[in-house]
Specification:
It is built from 9 helices and 8 strands. It is an alpha/beta fold. The chain starts with 7 loop residues before the first strand and ends in a 7-residue tail after the last helix. 35% of the residues are buried.
C-alpha cells in the first residue's frame, strides 16, 4: 500500500478504517464494485410481487445476522401469521439456524432455499415484498465491507430494511430509499417489518426511488468508467499521488 500510486476501497467505512490503521502513499479512493443493473438486476413485469413474502439473501455466517432475523420474524408471525420468509443462501450456520427456526415455532413459515444462481436472484427479489439485510458486527470484529445484495434488491425495486452499519449507509439513505434499524435488535426489526406490511403507501414510495438510487453509483458501465479514469491517472507520469 505504501508503494501504490492509487488505493481503492469499496466503501467510506473501509476508507476510514484504512486511514486510521494503515499508512498509505495517497488518500484511498472509494470505488465500489458493480452490479449488472441493466441485463440482470432490474424489474421484471412478468414476476408478480407477493405482499406477504419476505426474503433474505446471503451467506449463513455470523455477520449476516440471520439469528436476529429469525427472532424478529417470530414476533412478526404473532401479528401476521400469513407472512412467509425465504432464506436464500448457504453456509456453516445453516444447521443451527434451521434448529432455531424449529425452536421458535416458525419452521413451517421459513423456507431455507440453499444456494441459488445469480440468474435466479432477480425473480426472487421481484416476488418479495421486502428484502431484509440484518447484518451485524461479528464477535471477531468482521462486518460488511459494502453489501452488494442490498444493491441487487434495490435494482429490482424491492423494499429494503437493513441494519444501520457504516458500510450499508453508502447504499441506504434512511427513509429515502430504504429503512435502517439498529443492528442486533430483533424488536426494532420486527416492528419495522410489521409497519411496512401494513403501509402500502410507504412501500410504493420506496419502490419508486429504489432503482434510481443505485444506478449511477453501482451499474457496471459507470463503475468501469470511474476505474478507467483512475487507472489512467495511476499510469500517467504527469499525475502525482494526492
Amino acid at each position: 500500500l505504501k508503494r501504490a500510486r492509487r488505493v481503492t476501497v469499496v466503501s467510506n467505512y473501509m476508507r476510514e478504517f484504512l486511514r486510521e490503521h494503515v499508512a498509505t502513499n495517497c488518500d484511498p479512493d472509494v470505488q465500489p464494485m458493480g452490479v449488472d443493473l441493466q441485463a440482470r438486476f432490474k424489474p421484471n413485469g412478468d414476476v408478480v410481487r407477493n405482499s406477504n413474502e419476505l426474503v433474505f439473501v446471503g451467506r449463513l455466517v455470523e455477520k449476516k445476522g440471520v439469528t436476529y432475523l429469525l427472532k424478529a420474524f417470530s414476533k412478526v408471525c404473532e401479528i401476521a401469521p400469513y407472512v412467509r420468509l425465504r432464506i436464500v443462501g448457504d453456509g456453516p450456520l445453516r444447521p443451527q439456524l434451521t434448529q432455531e427456526a424449529e425452536m421458535l415455532g416458525i419452521s413451517d413459515k421459513v423456507e431455507f432455499c440453499g444456494s441459488v444462481t445469480q440468474a435466479q436472484l432477480p425473480a426472487i427479489y421481484g416476488r418479495a415484498s421486502i428484502a431484509l439485510i440484518p447484518s451485524v458486527i461479528a464477535k471477531s470484529g468482521d462486518q460488511e465491507g459494502l453489501g452488494l445484495v442490498t444493491v441487487e434488491a434495490l435494482g429490482c425495486n424491492c423494499v429494503v430494511i437493513a441494519s444501520d452499519l457504516p458500510a450499508i449507509r453508502d447504499i441506504i439513505t434512511a427513509e429515502e430509499n430504504g429503512i435502517l434499524v439498529k443492528p442486533t435488535s430483533s424488536t426494532a426489526l420486527a416492528d419495522t417489518i410489521i409497519r411496512l406490511l401494513e403501509d402500502d403507501a410507504s412501500c410504493e414510495k420506496f419502490r419508486e426511488v429504489a432503482r434510481a438510487s443505485v444506478v449511477d453509483k453501482f451499474d457496471w458501465p459507470n463503475v468501469a468508467e470511474r476505474y478507467r479514469r483512475l487507472l489512467h491517472q495511476a499510469t500517467d507520469p504527469v499525475h502525482k499521488p494526492s
